[in-house]
């Protein structure tokens, strides 16, 4: 999870989804990966400025493995990038800076939301109904050359602002530099803000982000945990950092794989004497998250899970709400407080299932990985994939397949920090798949090309193999687990075929319902 959610990897995963669904994934600021996209970044910014001299965007540079604001800085010109640490190129993300965040008491703040990834197969996601808001300690001004280095104005990290003389530790949850999310939403509601809409946008952001990272997580997961065996139950509590823009649109800043669960803070109780004292707002939010996680994960708890009761989800277009539903109030005998974690997936399957295209590509990838524990596809396995799915023909020979493999794999091995294992990783395979889809279904938009190629491949894998394929498939894995288990969560769908068709229909219906305007960028 740590690997997956590092800033570069998260940016790549979201970018893949932005290629397929630009409108749905416009909640993540435009990002470039350093050092490899440095040139691209400089050229694009120069062009934007040349086209319109009044545009003067700001960018935030974040080191790849960084946390707590470490090493972050703002720039207005690509020439201000610090590309090297000693003799080594710095791995970082440079991102469009959101210049007009929503302010409260003239201060910038962000939201920390706790999300439980309860299971990957089937995908189950819970969101905590209460979260934290972390405030800056210097009144906000839009970035200018003068204030770029004012961290207490631009960065909301608790770990930074706690060192500002203006930081207010508070006993109340609605004042001070760390407040409960509900107290902030209450204030916004009092000003007439539609907070149901804000919540439903946040839920959508969380589900879409999970959908972006799950394909690669599945690859890690299958390498660690043998399929089909009763193994350990894995779950993870994630910390989503979200910024609200002035127009109330939520923007994803990052996802923390290991969010702090501290419920006290350090305080100077006498001059020079520091002690840990309870932090009521942290306690209020975090105790509930841990308690509910344990209640939901408890293996002795044999109550049928809400997810199975509600498999199939709600109808298209049904409002996404945050209020507790009667069956969610308490899974126990009533002696414990009601659940603060709300299930959002599979509950909202129908609204979001059409986005799960890359997961289906990952299922193909895993199927052809061959040896258990592998995370990269070798050239033979890639050829087997092409042959089994009947993707080569007179216009696309096996020699071209080999060139495609070498070309993409070589490029990706240069960009990955850890390229000890040779072969084609999932992200490279996805790129190859997009290429194959675009070649085959020329005139359609990318997402339709990809959906069509997936249908084709999945149909080939379902049909009984001929002699040639029987030989090649024998070195690959049997039925992809993803598809097998997804079928279980959709009792109305008897086989992978209908599942696939249902997902495609979901997708097509969605396309008809959606306006086609593309927002290339996050306007603020
Ligand atoms: P870290 O893991 O080091 O905390 P973050 O991505 O959370 O890195 O960024 C630190 C802080 O910088 C955020 O809490 C937020 O206040 C600010 N920030 C990050 N990205 C942006 C952005 N694109 N636009 C505006 N502010 C941002």
Mind explaining what this structure looks like?
The structure is a single chain. The protein has 524 residues and is an alpha+beta fold. The chain contains 18 helices and 16 strands. The protein has helices at residues 2-5, 7-20, 38-51, 151-154, 158-161, 181-190, 195-224, 280-297, 306-309, 349-352, 357-368, 379-388, 398-415, 426-440, 446-462, 467-473, 481-489, 496-513; strands at residues 31-34, 59-63, 73-75, 84-85, 88-89, 92-96, 103-104, 107-119, 124-128, 132-135, 178-180, 236-244, 250-256, 264-270, 273-278, 341-345. The strands form four sheets. Strands 7, 8, 9, 10, 11, 12, 13 and 16 form an eight-stranded antiparallel β-sheet that branches. α11 (357-368) packs across α14 (426-440). The chain starts with a helix and ends in an 11-residue tail after the last helix. It binds adenosine-5'-diphosphate (ADP). The site of adenosine-5'-diphosphate has 20 residues, from β2, β12 and β13.
Can you give the mean pLDDT? Answer: 83
Form type: globular
Ligand roster: adenosine-5'-diphosphate
Helical residue percent band: 40-55%
What's the N-to-C terminus distance? 31 Å
Proportion of β residues? 15-25%
**Main sheet specs:** 8 strands, antiparallel
Total strand segments: 16
Rg result: 24 Å
Class inferred from helices and paired strands: alpha+beta
Low-confidence stretches: 304-313, 467-524
List the total number of helices: 18
